[in-house]
Design goal:
CATH superfamily of the largest domain: Aldolase class I
Mean pLDDT: 92
Strand order of the largest sheet: 7-8-10-11-12-13-14-15
Helix content: 25-40%
Strand content: 15-25%
Number of helices: 9
Structural class: alpha/beta
CATH architecture of the largest domain: Alpha-Beta Barrel
CATH class of the largest domain: Alpha Beta
C-alpha cells in the first residue's frame, strides 16, 4: 500500500475544514468540498460517511499490451511492450477529449473489472512487460491505486510510467511522479485562456508539474501537445511553447505534436492537416528543440529520431515496428558516439 493510503478505497488526500461538516479533497487544485453522498468533479472520488474514497480503486476499465511508442514515449525502452491500465473519470474538463468514453463515464462498477495491484504486476510479469503505464484516463485521480501498483512493480523490477495532464497539487505530485520512471505530460496549449475555456483548468499548475518532474525527480519526461485547428495551431503559440520547453525543461526534452480528430464537444472542427504538424515540427526544431515528433499522421521523418550532433538516423518507426539503425549500446550514436538522452535498459 502507498504511504498515504490507509485502506484500499481511502482517499489519497482529504481534510475537514475548520468549520462545517463537509470534507475537502486535496488531491488536485479543484479542492472539491463534499457533503455525504456527493462526488467530486472527477466523479470517482466520493464522500462516504466521514471519509472521501476512490470508488474505482482496483477496478480497471481497460487493460492492454501496447508498444511503448503508443504512449507516446520515444526515448524509453524503444520497441518494448508495456502493460497499459486505466480506470474511469477525469479531473480535467477538456471539450476535445479523445477518450471521453472513459473520462466522462459514470458507471465504474458496471464497466470495470476487478484488478488489484498484485494482479496488475502479475500480468506485466506474465507477458514480459518491463514497464506498466497508468493511462487511458488521468492517473492523477486514481493516484492511490497507481502508487500501490508502482510500489509493487518496483519490488518486481518493473518500471512505472504515467500518462497525465499534470493537473495535481504539490504534495501528491511529489508522491506520484517520485514513484514513476517515465512520464508523458499533455501540455494542451500555451495559452492560459485556452486552458480555462477548453479544459476548465489552469496552465500554470501544469507548467509547475513539468518543472517539478524535470528538476526534482529521476522520472524520464516527454511532452505531448494535441494541435487543434484554429485553437492552438498558430506559429506564435508553437514558438512560445517550444521556447518554454527549451528554456525550462531542456532542449533534449522530446516533444510530440499530435493530430486532433473531432471528438466529444468539438466535433465541428476539422482534423488537423498533416502539413500543419509538419510545419509546427519545423518551427520547434528552429527554436532549438532536438527531438520533435509528429503523431497520428503518416510522416516518416517526423517519427524518426536523429542524432542531435551529426544528424544520423538513430531510431526509425513505422506501422511495422521500429528499427535502430544508428544506435548502439546504451543509447549511443554509432557514427559520432554522442549519447541519446533517454532510458535504454
Amino acid at each position: 500500500m502507498s504511504q498515504l493510503t490507509q485502506e484500499p478505497t481511502s482517499a489519497y488526500l482529504w481534510q475537514r475544514p475548520a468549520s462545517g461538516d463537509k470534507l475537502t479533497c486535496t488531491l488536485c487544485p479543484r479542492q472539491c468540498t463534499l457533503a455525504p453522498g456527493q462526488r467530486g468533479f472527477c466523479f470517482i472520488r466520493a464522500r462516504e460517511g466521514e471519509k472521501i474514497v476512490n470508488t474505482s480503486y482496483g477496478i480497471a476499465s481497460g487493460v492492454a499490451i501496447d508498444p511503448i511508442e503508443k504512449k507516446p514515449l520515444y526515448h524509453f525502452l524503444p520497441g518494448s511492450p508495456i502493460l497499459s491500465l486505466g480506470t474511469l473519470g477525469c479531473n480535467m474538463g477538456c471539450l476535445f477529449c479523445q477518450n471521453s468514453h472513459l473520462s466522462k463515464n459514470r458507471a465504474p462498477q458496471e464497466l470495470g473489472v476487478p484488478l488489484p495491484p498484485r494482479q496488475v504486476v502479475a500480468l506485466a510479469q506474465r507477458y514480459a512487460c518491463p514497464s506498466i503505464a497508468y493511462t487511458y484516463n488521468d492517473p492523477v485521480i486514481w493516484a492511490d491505486y497507481a502508487l500501490d501498483c508502482a510500489h509493487l512493480a518496483r519490488e518486481a523490477g518493473i518500471y512505472s510510467v504515467a500518462v497525465s495532464a499534470g493537473f495535481i497539487n504539490p504534495q501528491p505530485r511529489a508522491q506520484l511522479f517520485g514513484a514513476m520512471r517515465g512520464a508523458n505530460i499533455d501540455l494542451k496549449s500555451f495559452n492560459p485562456a485556452f486552458y480555462k475555456r477548453y479544459c476548465q483548468a489552469d496552465l500554470e499548475v501544469v507548467l509547475e508539474t513539468l518543472r517539478y518532474i524535470r528538476r526534482q525527480t529521476s522520472c524520464w519526461l516527454e511532452v505531448t501537445t494535441l494541435i487543434i485547428p484554429t485553437l492552438n495551431d498558430s506559429p506564435e503559440e508553437i514558438k512560445a511553447l517550444t521556447r518554454w520547453i527549451r528554456d525550462e525543461l531542456g532542449a533534449h526534452t522530446p516533444l510530440h505534436l499530435s493530430a486532433f480528430h473531432p471528438a466529444y464537444k468539438l466535433k465541428d472542427l476539422p482534423p488537423t492537416p498533416a502539413q500543419t504538424l509538419i510545419s509546427a515540427r519545423q518551427l520547434a526544431l528552429e527554436e532549438g528543440l532536438h527531438y520533435v515528433y509528429t503523431g497520428n499522421i503518416h510522416d516518416p521523418g517526423g517519427q524518426t529520431t536523429f542524432c542531435a550532433k551529426c544528424g544520423q538516423a538513430l531510431i526509425e518507426r513505422s506501422l511495422g515496428g521500429i528499427s535502430l539503425p544508428g544506435l548502439k549500446g546504451e543509447g549511443i550514436c554509432s557514427q559520432c558516439a554522442t549519447p541519446l538522452p533517454g532510458v535504454w535498459s
